[in-house]
């Protein structure tokens, strides 16, 4: 095993001096600064750090990150399987079982350097694909090595006020966004309202922003905001229990979508589509991103692998080939950065 020390980096802060690690979300109500990673399948890792200081992501150091060759990436679902999956979801929609479901695939490639450091990858992402909820969690002894360039807020918290910023609708430009994208966004906003409504005070859940166009490197998104005030007695265990996994990367109704996802996807999502972020228990603040545009190192096999997930929301109005193309669009720029070829391909990715 490599000798990198535990570290977390979010929003201009870097945390070091690991104190303890737990899977109990109630610990997030105690004290201290926590880095939080929740796999889509439910594994939760909460790491409390002793020291937190202001520090921007340093510039990339030449040679510090050696990524996979662009041709080495393999997908858990190839184009044929993905298109077939989209058609199957449309059959479920026609049968009235689900209104929308996210179909995702996980890309994997061997890492040329077994001592690879996700924090070095973070430096490349900060330059090549800056994102509002970018961050790093490096816990080598606990199987967590994540670098995220997530554009999507899963949950923020300020005292008793909580908010979520679901993304639905992606295109290269605003002109690419379809009526289907707006309808899908509204559908997921309703789902998130219901999720938060389970743990928020009656009448406190509101939607201050609906279908706002946000520009990100190489693409645009439709983003909404859902906000509420936690009910008395509700804390992190109840909030995560009500809202996880994020509605924007599951579907509606969530229970039906999860069942369909499990049947169609051939690889666990892991941190992808889970939650990655921080909780400052002393100040009662937090920012958890949806684990999209996220890389993680998997060292469970004979050689370390770099993994990355991509997907699309499927509705009755989905064109299977267009949905595959959306997953390619979401991945292209990030894979170029991780493979070290962003300068050559990033301008058009």
Structural notes for this entry:
The protein is an alpha+beta fold and 349 residues long. The protein has one domain (7-345): Anthranilate synthase (4-Layer Sandwich), CATH 3.60.120.10. It is built from seven helices and 18 strands. It has helices at 79-94, 118-128, 179-197, 236-243, 254-264, 320-338, 342-345, and strands spanning 7-10, 13-22, 33-38, 44-54, 74-75, 100-110, 133-139, 144-150, 153-158, 161-165, 167-171, 206-216, 219-229, 251-252, 275-280, 285-290, 294-298, 305-314. The protein has an 18-stranded antiparallel β-sheet that branches. The protein is globular, with a radius of gyration of 19 Å. It starts with 6 loop residues before the first strand and ends with a helix. The model is unreliable at 344-349 (pLDDT under 50).
């Amino acid at each position: 095993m490599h000798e990198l020390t535990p570290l977390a980096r979010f929003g201009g802060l870097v945390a070091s001096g690991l104190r303890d690690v737990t899977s109990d979300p109630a610990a997030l109500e105690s004290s201290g600064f926590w880095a939080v990673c929740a796999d889509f399948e439910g594994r939760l890792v909460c790491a409390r750090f002793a020291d937190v200081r202001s520090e921007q992501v340093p510039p990339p150091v030449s040679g510090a990150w050696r990524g996979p060759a662009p041709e080495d990436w393999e997908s858990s679902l190839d184009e044929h399987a993905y298109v077939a999956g989209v058609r199957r979801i449309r059959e479920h929609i026609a049968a009235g079982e689900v209104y929308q479901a996210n179909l995702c695939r996980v890309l994997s490639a061997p890492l040329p350097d077994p001592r690879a450091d996700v924090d070095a990858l973070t430096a490349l992402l900060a330059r090549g694909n800056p994102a509002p909820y970018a961050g790093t969690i490096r816990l080598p002894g606990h199987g967590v090595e994540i670098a995220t360039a997530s554009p999507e807020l899963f949950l923020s918290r300020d005292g008793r006020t909580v908010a979520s910023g679901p993304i639905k609708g992606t295109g290269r430009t605003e002109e690419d966004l379809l009526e289907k994208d707006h309808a899908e966004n509204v559908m997921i906003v309703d789902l998130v309202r219901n999720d938060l409504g389970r743990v928020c005070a009656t009448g406190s859940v509101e939607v201050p922003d609906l279908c706002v166009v946000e520009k990100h490197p190489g693409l645009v998104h439709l983003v909404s905001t859902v906000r509420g005030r936690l009910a008395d007695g509700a804390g992190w265990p109840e909030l995560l229990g009500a809202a996880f996994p994020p509605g924007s990367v599951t579907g509606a109704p969530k229970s039906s979508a999860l069942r369909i996802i499990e049947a169609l996807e051939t690889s666990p999502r892991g941190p992808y589509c889970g939650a990655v972020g921080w909780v400052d228990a002393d100040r009662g603040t937090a920012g958890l991103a949806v684990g999209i545009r996220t890389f993680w190192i998997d060292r469970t096999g004979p050689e370390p692998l770099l993994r990355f997930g991509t997907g699309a929301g499927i509705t009755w109005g989905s064109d299977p080939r267009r949905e595959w193309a959306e997953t390619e669009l979401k991945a292209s720029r990030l894979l170029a950065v991780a493979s070290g070829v962003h300068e050559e391909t990033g301008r058009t990715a």
